[in-house]
Amino acid sequence: MSTILECKNLSKKYGRKQALDNITLSLESGKIIGLLGPNGSGKTTLIKLINGLLAPTGGKLFINGNTPGVESKKIVSYLPERTYLDETQKVSEAITLFEDFYKDFDRSRAISMLEKLNIDSNARIKTLSKGTKEKVQLILVMSRRAKLYCLDEPIAGVDPAARDYILSTIINNYEPDSTILISTHLISDVENILDEVVFIKNGHIVLKNDVEDIRFNQGKSVDVLFREVFKC
Amino acid sequence: MLGKLFKYEWRSISKLLLPIHGFVLLFALLSRFYFTISGGTDALLNTDSTIIGTLTMLLIFALVIVISSIAIFTYIYSGYHFHKNVFTDQGYLTNTLPVTPSQLLLSKELAALLWLLIDVVVISISIFILVGSTELFSNFSIFWSTLIRYASQTPLFTTLIIIALVLSPFLAIGILFFSITLGNLASSHKVLASIGAYVGIYVVQQIFGLIQLVVWGYFGSTTIMRVNIYSNNYSFETFLNPILITGLIFNIILIAVCWMGSKYIMTKRLNLQ
Fold first, then answer.
1. What is the arithmetic mean of pLDDT over B12-31?
2. B85 in contact with chain A, both atoms CB, cutoff 8 A
3. Does the keyword Transmembrane helix apply (chain B) (predicted)?
4. Is the CB of A51 less than 8 angstroms away from the CB of B98?
5. Is pLDDT at A11 greater than 60 in this prediction?
6. Using one digit for the tens of pLDDT, what is the confidence trace for B77-91?
7. What is the DSSP track for chain B?
8. CB-CB: which of A53, A55, A100 is closest to B92?
9. Which residue of B has its CA nearest to A75?
10. Fewest CB atoms within 10 Å of the CB: A68, A213, A223, B51?
11. Which domains, ranges and CATH numbers included, belong to chain A?
12. Contact between A82 and B95 using a beta-carbon 8 Å cutoff
């Protein structure tokens, strides 16, 4: 068990808006962690900071001991909330790209997942439906044997059946000593796969707890606790 | 990694640029073929039929426009592609690849540079296709040997001109990419801000150009264009060499500033929306 992510007094300000305010957080390896909070709470900001897409305005963060950079990007697999592939490419070309740049990419895993979903590798990405595009991206991300997976709202835009598929893909494909950080506001769908939850509100961490503790010791589902904590 | 980045960048921008350049060559070829079988452009333009005359004029006009704008198109498209691949949705992939911002920048600049060179070749070939003839070739040979003769008599001037020519595409690409990274520092209207940055850098270049003319005495009271009108001892290279030298130094510094600036912004000031 080691610390895969460490944030120390991490802050991010956009103009006048304080998106993250003095966050201190440690995440351990080998866990599936839910980053839960309402829209605009800072979940995506934190994930973008982890991936080096934003520069912090204060504090530090370390991924496996490294600040965001080439070394951290080698071990972090990121699924953003948007289509980030060049849509003029074919699915097969996207797979080759991932294989080219990421040593930890497992091509056979990707191919078999595509086949199971009947996604044609020769299809151009722009011809696929929104849900299929998201599945392709998820397959690419989960086919990497990464140490930290950051999934930003992986199930928000898809139908319930697809959600189940995505969640089972996540469970079945991650490495045992890896950490998966899932950011979402759809709590009841994901809570069954989570080991830990981190509640974030207005750029502050308001809670960090084991799911078991919440369920058995407090006797409530994470969804219920969420509604309590984030009551409007 | 740099090689891989270059490969993907090359493939991506060539998807559009290759057919367009192919079209230009084809257009030139077909036009030349048409002119030849019709007895030449003079015959077509002076024909009795006003329709054919007008259409020929339009064809010539279109050829001029297409050939002269291919380089500008390539230039702007390289910039647009850089912006799209690094600073929009695709940036979520580009900037999370395990590569340094320098490698990203360099691979894209090299791909753009190579296409600018291809532009020069394509434009030259197109012009040759359209107006090439043995007469033109022999005239050009005479022109070229005269040029070489003058060049060998003015070695410093020639060297400076050649260096300036070689540096100019590097400078053009450097300024383009720096303008785009600068523009993306703005929180909104990034494309507009990039255009503004480009104009700003152009203004800086012009101001420097003016300063160096003044400093080297091109606006002196006893000299006109740095030529002492009371003396008989001058040559064109005497009065151009100083500004060529300072201009070159300025451009080299500008290339360095654009590179370091772009790299800094992509490393420390990337704020992907």
1. 94
2. yes
3. yes
4. no
5. yes
6. 999 999 999 999 999
7. -HHHHHHHHHHHHHHHHHHHHHHHHHHHHHHHHHHHHTT-HHHHHT-S-HHHHHHHHHHHHHHHHHHHHHHHHHHHHHHHHHHHHHHSTTHHHHTTSSS-HHHHHHHHHHHHHHHHHHHHHHHHHHHHHHH--HHHHHHHHHHHHHHHHHHHH-HHHHHHHHHHHHHHHHHHHHHHHHHHHHHTTSSS-HHHHHHHHHHHHHHHHHHHHHHHHHHTTTT-SSEETTEETT-S---HHHHHHHHHHHHHHHHHHHHHHHHHHHHHHHHH-----
8. A53
9. B98
10. B51
11. 1-74+147-228 (3.40.50.300), 82-144 (no CATH)
12. no
Of A70, A82, A100, the CB nearest to B89: A82
Say whether the ipTM exceeds 0.85: yes
In this structure, what token pair is assigned to residue B201? 């850098």
Q: Tokens 């007469």 — which residue?
A: B135
Q: What is the pLDDT of residues B186-209, one digit of tens each?
A: 988 999 999 999 999 999 999 999
- Strand A17-28, strand A148-152: pairing: unpaired
For residue B197, give how far its alpha carbon lies from the nearest alpha carbon of chain A (Å): 21
Contact A100 B4 (CB under 8 A): yes
Number of other CB atoms surrounding residue A68 within 10 Å: 21
Query: With contacts defined as CB-CB under 8 Å, which chain B residues touch A85?
Result: 90, 93
